[in-house]
Amino acid sequence: MDDIEDVVSAPRLPADAPPPGTEVVPRKTSKRQARQRKAAMGYDIPGTHSIYIKTYGCSHNFSDGEYMAGQLAAQGYGVTEEWDAADAYILNSCTVKNPSEAHFHTLVGAAKATGKPVIVAGCVPQGDQKSSAWDGLSVIGVQQIDRVVEVVEEALRGSTVHLFRNTKKDRPGLD
């Protein structure tokens, strides 16, 4: 009778495989080092930025803000609560609560002053689509938040995008 070690054959490694224990292990880098490396490459890779998201207003708006954060995180973006660490800002507000709208407009001005991309979302920009307050900013209407990743990518490239759906006619029919 054979020993069990003789019966069960060990898995065979390919001839060109490195010996066990010599695998490449990536070194952890700080956020600062990552930013420096990204800047040294001369271009930005989508999904490698940090996005600041601030939501004001009703509970539906907070749900939309969480949805947008989830969409961005799923594509590799970091969602940060640190204003200065952000590469872009998403500001989401509702018209129902007036104090929220006032805070929103103040924050939009502060975000513009940084020179970083600013994306506004929610029913404030949806309700006043032609406002000069949105000049130079990307805007997402309330029914287009599922396209937040596209808008962020374009904003980071220096483009401005305005996405709105104005009528029920724009919706695809049910066949």
TrEMBL record:
Keyword Endoplasmic reticulum: no
Record-annotated MTTase N-terminal domain positions: 49-157
Gene Ontology MF, one: metal ion binding
Matching Pfam families: UPF0004
Organism: Eutreptiella gymnastica
Organism lineage: Eukaryota, Discoba, Euglenozoa, Euglenida, Spirocuta
Biased composition annotated in UniProt, kind: Basic residues: 28-38
One term under GO cellular component: endoplasmic reticulum
Name of this chain's protein: MTTase N-terminal domain-containing protein
Keywords per UniProt: Transferase
Location of the region described as Disordered in the Swiss-Prot/TrEMBL record: 1-39
Key word tRNA processing present: no
UniProt cross-references to InterPro entries, sorted A to Z: Methylthiotransferase_N (IPR013848), Methylthiotransferase_N_sf (IPR038135)
